[in-house]
Amino acid sequence: MRADHSFAEHPHAASEPSQSEVVIDLEARAADWEIAPGRTLRCWTYNGQVPGPTIEARVGDTLVVRLKNSLDEPTTIHFHGIRLPSAMDGTQVVQPTVAPGESFEYRFMVPDAGTFWYHSHHNETVQVERGLYGALVIRGVDEPVVDRERVLVLDDMKLNRKGEFAKFGGWVEQHTGREGDVRLVNGQSEPELRVSAGQMERWRIVNASNARYVRLSVGDRRFSILGTSGGFIEAPVEVSEVLLPPGDRIDIVVGPFAEGEVISLDSLAYDRHAGKRNRERFATVRVGTAERSSAMIPDRLRTIEPLAPNNAVTNRLVKLSERLSIKRGTDFLINDEMHHTDKPVTVGELQIWDIENASHMDHPFHLHGFFFQVIDVNGVAPAFLAWQDTVNVPPKSHVRIAWMPDDRPGLWMYHCHILEHHAGGMMANFEVVRTAETGSKAMPSCHT
Ligand code: C2O
Ligand code: CU
Ligand code: CU
To answer: Cystine design at 74: which of 97, 107, 152, 318 (Cβ 3.0–4.6 Å)?
Structure first.
């Protein structure tokens, strides 16, 4: 399939729910990838490209992803944000890794509209950095009309003087996470995007970096948030910046711009207390001649019922911390344990989790397979209601989330989405069980 796989050929009209099968072949393989004219890098790719092909489907479709592993090491794919069955989650507690030369078929229904992504979930610190990730766009029946839609997958790569991937690992990288100075949008180093004056575009933005926080600015202009990692918010919210930790997505509407404008798509200065970054460019937007606009952004996008009252009582503490280790430099912990096994949760029982960051640096908390709502951050309710699967937890802070385990029993996971912290132990497996009595089977231990 092509990267620009278009939905024009789709047999269903946009007004009816779809139930088609969308079949995609993804071959994980090494390939030379040109990140800028004349600058080629040996990457690990899906189908020879970085990012892998954008997978597009409609709510209700069944996605069939046939992974063939042509790498020299095992791999799996995780579909980040999709409410799929546990067996399709791509972690090693639910499937054996796919050995070199082997294949695996993922098959699941996609129940929610939004901007998701897929990525390797084995030896992630290396495999995702080398390019094994791609966007996954699920469209609902009633999407706002825009003049153009783009998917922008942000990433950074850490290269050495020869322009190859710098050596992986080491104490500093394991502690802070791997950040690099080559900033990519859709696999291109600081590319130019051309937009037409007078038009409004919808940008679906994914942060696929191992560790870099993107404090997104569109040339300091105002733009509207349409959705977060869990799909639409209730109504567009105008802002001039948004923080995207690793793993997170944001859906925005930009424009209209005036002809001749040159706008820098930047990440503003941010201190995550494990490396401070100044303002840095990801891309340049050039505004060409004016085109007619037929964009129609509704005032209301959907209704989100609050899952829990503000005074909901916490029923689980998830403590993120770190400790010095003579062997590894830093151990990353959940509830004082590396690679933690957390208590089971029961289908239908509202979860109110207090995620405490007892460490000195930011950690992006990610829950597999379920959306949550943030209740409060250090006691303060967020500016708007949203569904999400990833949330930044600032140092010495508490973020309370509410989520409801629907009837998808099995093994699940949560972790810090700084991939080096996940690998360094800041993760937990837990089971979703149908009744309280059947839970807490022994679980195989899993490190990624
Ligand atoms: Cu994108 Cu286990 O995560
Ligand atoms: Cu995930
Ligand atoms: Cu972390």
So the answer is: 97
Ligand 3 geometric centre to CA of 127 (Å): 18
Q: Exposed, middle or buried, 16 (CB in 10 Å: 0-12/13-18/19+)?
A: exposed
Whether the predicted model's global pTM rises above the 0.90 cut:
yes
The answer to whether residue 92 scores a pLDDT higher than 90 is: yes
pLDDT in tens, 293-331: 999 999 999 999 999 988 899 999 999 999 998 888 899
Dihedral, CA of residue 281, residue 283, residue 289 and residue 293, to nearest 10? -100
Which residue minimizes the CA distance to atom 1 of ligand 1?
80
Which are the contacts of 380, defined by CB distance < 8 A and separation ≥ 6? none
Q: What's the whole-number average pLDDT of the chain?
A: 94
The answer to whether 390 and 245 have CB atoms below 8 angstroms apart is yes
Q: Where does the pLDDT of residue 436 fall: very low under 50, low under 70, confident under 90, or very high at 90 and above?
A: low
What b/e readout covers 397-413, taking b as 16+ CB neighbours within 10 angstroms? bbbbbbbbbeebbebbb
- Ligand with smallest separation from the Cα of 415: 1
Q: Which residues are paired to 77 by β-bridges?
A: 120
Ligand 3 centre distance from Cα of residue 139 (Å): 31
Rounded Cα distance between 386 and 176, Å, is 29
- Residue located nearest, by CA, to atom 3 of ligand 1: 80
Pocket of ligand 1 (CB under 6 A): 78, 80, 119, 121, 247, 366, 368, 415, 417
Q: What pLDDT, in 10s, does the model give residues 215-259?
A: 999 999 999 999 999 999 999 999 999 999 999 999 999 999 999
> Does residue 307 contact residue 373 with C-beta atoms inside 8 Å?
yes
**Is pLDDT of 8 > 90?**
no
pLDDT of residue 437: 59
Amino acid at 412: W
Which atom in ligand 1 lies closest to the alpha carbon of residue 91?
A: 2
For 361, half-sphere exposure in the C-beta direction (CA atoms, 13 angstrom radius) is 22
- In the reported structure, the alpha carbon of residue 269 is separated from the centroid of ligand 3 by a whole-number distance in angstroms of 19
| Contact (CB, 8 A) for 385 and 232 | no
Q: Relative to the CA of 247, which ligand 1 atom is closest?
A: 1
CA 332 / ligand 3 centre spacing (Å): 8
